[in-house]
Amino acid sequence: MSGIAGRWPVARTEQNREFLAIADLHAGYGAAKVLHGVGFSVAEGEVCAILGPNGAGKTTLLRALCGMVKVRGTLRLGGTDVTGRAPEAMARLGVAHVPEGRGAFAPLSVAENLRLGAFTRRDRAGVEADLRRVYDYFPILRDKQREPAGGLSGGQQQMLAIGRALMLRPRLLLLDEPSLGLSPLVTKELFGIVHTINEEERTTVIVVEQNAHLALGIAHQAHVLESGRIVLSGTAAQIKADDQVTRSYLGIRVRP
């Protein structure tokens, strides 16, 4: 592991206490081990960016956090040990996962897709209120609410995927490569909406993203994964300011 791991402390305050705690996390697929002792924490209401090259284990980390892969180590959410919980149980605890590739149910209408996101809820009035809230964030979805989801553009399908996750009323929102396949203009708009959601709803967000500049622009803290291990952690501002480090670990510049 690099000698600069943990080089910058991530700020904490008494009012913004630890919400998600990950310790010595190992995960993989059968005999193939992907994550090797990952550990960090995220305060409630923070945005945390997970950066790194392809194959570093970023997607596996999100899958581990929502119960999609078997793990060894410790996961705590809001002070509760949730290690090894199944995906449905994690959803009921308020963990919403937007996977890479969006995954819209193409034959169903936009509105039907959104309502599927509220499958764990029984508060009908609240669901209707949140549906209106999603339409406020994404007006194009209101305009196309009766149309099949399969007819949406890539950017609109990504908005639909995030909107469906919001219908869960999540405490923790996991976003896997939200900019994948989108134009720069749509990507910038989408990240602006995610920032607004975090600011207005105080939803804790973990975003895996290749566009380091945009991810660090909305994040409070960031961690760089390499070969399944965290090699660099710090505040988003600190990592963004160190151009030499980001080029070494990400292979890209984060400054526009």
Automatic annotation (TrEMBL):
Keywords: Amino-acid transport, ATP-binding, Nucleotide-binding, Transport. It comes from the Bacteria. One of its GO terms (molecular function) is ATP binding. Gene3D superfamilies: P-loop containing nucleotide triphosphate hydrolases (3.40.50.300). The keyword Transport applies. Residues 20-252 form the ABC transporter domain. It holds the Pfam family ABC_tran. SMART domains: AAA. InterPro entries: AAA+_ATPase (IPR003593), ABC_transporter-like_ATP-bd (IPR003439), ABC_transporter-like_CS (IPR017871), BCAA_Transport_ATP-bd_LivF (IPR052156), P-loop_NTPase (IPR027417). CDD domains: ABC_TM1139_LivF_branched. The keyword ATP-binding applies. Belongs to the ABC transporter superfamily. This is ABC transporter ATP-binding protein. It comes from Nocardia rhizosphaerae.
